[in-house]
Specification:
389 residues, single chain
Length: 389
């Protein structure tokens, strides 16, 4: 029961986290490459090769690269022809200042094709007001995240002023609100890519292409192969979330440590039961040995008793663990005033968990049954008579 419950909780949580990572963002990000300058990056550009040692004071710093994806049209053709790609969406993300009355909030304004973006991510499912496709219904329309909406004090159909860089503020009508549950994501806004490109002064340019694959487990392999044929910075969802995946590995290690401790306690329980049985049945063992039972017969007798205890315990443990997991699935982990209050704990009920639980239970029962069974098999009638028990 403990193995089923703990494993179901941890694996369900990890599966939920992975699903959020691959649904809320692109599975592969093709971005304009921007690398940091290192100390001697510009030596050859400013000095002749004969200079062996160049000292900078202060050393070069800043970004080296491009502001936009180079030749995005070639990427569009390549992605459309790749059978592994399910959908892709060109993006123009611009740091912006949103102003309503006297309140100003800085946030990213993401320009996209709403139809393509809805295929790449699950943003359309998080809409609490309006529809994600509304940003394509006319010029200068914007959808705000829940956190951004609260900070501005804005509401649907209001007009906010959006400033990109040092350019003139542009009035944009709020046509929708989304809530993803991630405060960083909810502090963003979405608009039509044509509007954002015009506001940013970069027509027909994109600084990212978001890609969704048919098999997300191949994302890292595909991203590495694409990095060899283009100058852009290409990363998969798991490469961008190494820390989160490392945390999941630690959770798995913790889960097996907890299960080992629980099985150890269960094994000692079976061992104590059989050991007390051997002590109480010494005279019966003597009678059986006098009747011709050999050591193997006595060991088999007590070992089978321990295995019966293990099998029956495993059976009831699986049933109790299953219903306990079903109960956990009814518990909501969002606050009552949240727009996602109906979402409950994600508990895994996969068959491998129950198979592993059964195998571990039988293993603990068999190991715990060996020592008492062996001690019972070593007893002889003479030893029992001499001890008087």
């Amino acid at each position: 029961m403990a193995y089923v419950s703990v494993s179901g909780f941890f694996k369900g949580f990890q599966g939920y986290m992975v699903q959020q990572l691959i649904d809320n963002t692109a599975q592969i990000h093709i971005q304009a490459r921007q690398d940091y300058l290192i100390d001697h990056e510009l030596d050859q550009a400013f000095y002749h090769q004969d200079f062996m040692h160049v000292f900078w004071s202060p050393p070069p710093s800043g970004l080296l690269g491009y502001l936009e994806v180079q030749n995005p049209q070639s990427w569009f053709v390549r992605l459309a022809a790749d059978q592994r790609v399910e959908a892709f969406s060109p993006l123009m993300t611009a740091p912006s200042l949103f102003t309503l009355a006297k309140t100003s909030v800085s946030a990213n304004l993401i320009g996209c094709d709403p139809v393509q973006q809805a295929r790449v991510t699950s943003i359309a499912k998080y809409m609490t007001e309006g529809k994600f496709a509304d940003i394509a219904g006319g010029g200068n329309r914007v959808i705000l995240g829940d956190e951004l909406m609260k900070r501005l004090g804005a509401s649907i159909d209001q007009t906010v002023l959006v400033t990109v860089g040092t350019l003139t503020a542009v009035p944009m009508k709020v046509v929708g609100r989304f809530f993803s549950g991630n405060r960083g994501s909810d502090l963003q806004a979405y608009g039509a890519i044509n509007d954002v490109q015009r506001m940013n002064g970069t027509p027909n340019r994109v600084n990212e292409i978001a890609v969704r694959l048919k098999d997300y487990t191949q994302a890292a392999l595909i991203a590495d192969s694409w990095s060899l044929i283009a100058p852009e910075k290409i990363e998969s969802w798991d490469q961008q979330n190494v820390n989160i995946l490392s945390m999941m590995k630690m959770q798995t290690a913790l889960r097996f440590t907890m299960i080992f401790a629980i099985l150890l306690v269960a094994g000692f329980g079976i061992y104590n039961v059989l050991n007390m049985t051997v002590t109480q049945k010494r005279q019966d063992i003597a009678i059986l040995r006098s009747m011709g039972y050999d050591t193997f017969d006595i060991v088999s007798l007590f070992f089978s008793q321990g295995m019966i205890v293990g099998v029956v315990g495993a059976f009831f443990g699986l049933i109790c663990g299953y219903f306990f997991c079903r109960y956990l699935q009814t518990i909501s982990f969002y606050p009552p005033n949240s727009s996602r209050m109906g979402e409950t704990l994600h508990i895994a009920l996969s068959a491998p968990i129950y198979v592993q639980a059964t195998l571990f239970a039988l293993l603990a029962a068999s190991v715990a049954s060996i020592l008492p069974s062996r001690s019972a098999g070593k007893l002889t009638p003479i030893e029992i008579i001499r001890t008087g028990t």
